[in-house]
């Protein structure tokens, strides 16, 4: 079968090359085939590859022809095309065997089609030759532009980087066949970004071509173009944008924009007070803009500067207190530098920026100032009242020099005058108090709110005003059978005075005891002495107790001497000479005395409590005599007035006329007639209400009487039922006045008061008739 090969385009024009088939007789002939074609001889078929260009715009494009060697041209054979793409992408002329492409081909979608061909004899309907495969390859054309797949591009590079520094590499790709000429060979170029950047043509590497300063411009947009076919005419291209940011380096030092700052501080401000801020500016950012402030010149060493790392401000603080009267203005110089500086960038920070600060001290009214932080005075004890102790002095530190007044807080022993002179108001005793801690207050006369205080310590000096005495009470015993020279007691002494030297005491017997005493004393020269018997034998019955006078002198100037009496009991001792028996007897005597005292105290207590109980009992009985009806309810009569009247049974009720009378007197008045009383009450019931002044006065009197007299009953409870009510036409229904009767009185007028008083009129009328 003959075939024709469609070779790849040459300058856009397809070249058709015949591929001759050979019969069995002609297979011996050597056929010259084009370079690149492939032959396969099988059963009379000669198959090859077909090449068809992509991007065909015609409706049908001839790809090649299949022809069997047995075909003699009489149209007795039918050619069929089978496989993927047969009928949809490729068709075949059944008579001639010509193959056509009926739709546009894209190599990037599919570059190879594998089909099968078959030849059938029309007359018999059977295949002349078996099926055989062949291949159609789509040849490439430059129909795809380069594309950058990793967009967007962004890079960061330090500012002031040298030329040639690598920034970033961009890469484009071309979908065309890289083995088909230069369709996929790319070339990079820079469309925007000169003169600071450059790009390598074959690799797409972007490099710095000139130094850049971030403070002038901190980011750049660079546009890179990629062309295929090595940039030849007809090449396709693609572009991308690259954002290049400059990172900061510390190439700028901080600078003060103000060469002079003016600040003020009060002389009353404590140390550590913030008096103002200063500010330097750095064009760098982040860590490179962190600053440190410091004092460069301050001869007074009065101020300091600390850095606020959040705001990058310098805070001027007071290091020492200032005094307006001493110095009212200061001048200091401050400097600033970066906290982090790379050694490579030290050339930008050779000289620090400085500024001058003028500080004005403001005058305030200050409290008085004492000349010393504290005072210590000394005075001897027993000095008379008004004795001089010492002088304190305070002054007004302000220019007006206000006079000062002095005072002592909570002291009854010392006094101070306006000159600051401290004197005593009482005699001092060192043994009571050896030191006095005073608080002296100084107050300005022109401004009493300005005060200050200072401690004053007064030491009371000792004088020898206390004679020595026994250090304790001694219970001394001597046996009847004691021999001469026997030690019966060791004594010692104390002195409440303070001695410059160590205390030393001298012990002696009085003159009388020295000549006639039965005892003697020996001074041990160590502030103790021993008492010894001066005879043999003592008699308990004749002389049970001895009293000897011992003189004790101190070493003070002048020396003081005291006489101390030592009591010595004579006792009957056992054979061993022990004085325990005497001590036991003495203890029993002491205990007996204490028991008697306790008994006496108990008896006195019983008498006192008995008197108290008797007094209370008498008071209770007195209450019962004054009010025998205490167990009854005082308001019982009041509760019985709910009915229309009690008649003659109300003889014990209060005379309500007394409550209505104009004169408030406790004495009983002469009784009125019954009719006149009732008429008076009837008129008063129409005129007097619960707010009557007379009624209130009576109630207040009763209330005061009840409050002052614990035995008085609660008369104030009567006020609830004292009247019927203001404006009652029927009048009072109370029968309080029923006790006041007149036998000659006529009660016929009660019939005129209405049906409610009919029963009362009958009762009074019948009572009068019976009495008559």
UniProtKB/TrEMBL annotation:
Name the Gene Ontology molecular function terms of this record: beta-catenin binding; cadherin binding; calcium ion binding
Record's keyword annotation contains Cell membrane: yes
**Residue ranges of domain Cadherin in the record:** 68-148, 149-256, 257-370, 371-470, 470-581
Output the InterPro entries linked to this UniProt entry.
Cadherin, Cadherin-like_dom, Cadherin-like_sf, Cadherin_CS, Cadherin_Y-type_LIR, Catenin-bd_sf
Q: What is this protein called?
A: Cadherin 19
User: How does this protein lie in the membrane?
Assistant: Single-pass type I membrane protein
- Signal peptide positions are 1-21
Gene Ontology cellular component?
adherens junction; catenin complex
Question: Which organism's genome codes for this protein?
Answer: Piliocolobus tephrosceles (Ugandan red Colobus)
* GO process annotations (BP): adherens junction organization; calcium-dependent cell-cell adhesion via plasma membrane cell adhesion molecules; cell migration; cell morphogenesis; cell-cell adhesion mediated by cadherin; cell-cell junction assembly; homophilic cell adhesion via plasma membrane adhesion molecules
What's a Pfam family this protein contains?
Cadherin
Q: Which SMART domains match?
A: CA
| Protein function | Cadherins are calcium-dependent cell adhesion proteins.
Q: Any idea which UniProt keywords this protein has?
A: Calcium, Cell adhesion, Cell membrane, Cleavage on pair of basic residues, Glycoprotein, Membrane, Metal-binding, Repeat, Signal, Transmembrane, Transmembrane helix
The domain of life for this entry's organism is Eukaryota
For this UniProt entry, what is the primary localization, expressed as one broad class? membrane
* Localization per record: Cell membrane
Bilayer-spanning residue ranges: 597-618
